[in-house]
Amino acid sequence: MILVLGDSLSAAYGIALDKGWVALLQARLSAAGYPHRVVNASVSGETTAGGLARLPALLARHKPQWVLVELGGNDGLRGLPLTQLRDNLRRIVALSRTAGARPVLFEMRIPSNYGPDYAEGFRASFATVARETATPLVPFFLAAIATDPTAFQEDGIHPTAGAQAAMLDAVWATLQPLLER
Question: Considering the entire predicted model, what is its pTM?
Fold first, then answer.
């Protein structure tokens, strides 16, 4: 079982849930003959602290093999101190492992209008935690669509249904080799 712990980007904000990248992941796994079931525990607006608070109950209920951690964007948009972001991510990784699950972190980015130092420190936080904890890292999964305004809903933040396959491809490039092991 694969648990997706994410924010609005994984909760399919503004589009039909069955059009989101998480639903597309389940379809791809099934079509390729993988036995994994995907549980989407993503919540729009979720932060690393919120995900961390919800994680113990999710781990107990679902007993996942994998925990895909797509969190942090809302922390950055709120200007959370980067030390707190990294601490929360480390704790999510540790809790997942203690429960017998293998975590996978997603690199997140924020707009540069938060200042280049904060934006770069934010981006680097994910690779830092991944390296420190020996956790696989999905490179920024919006990279393929980030500069295409037509890939986003009117808010300019949330991807359209048409962009979800590209997001899944970015996740799949990291996840699929892990599932093969």
Answer: 0.97
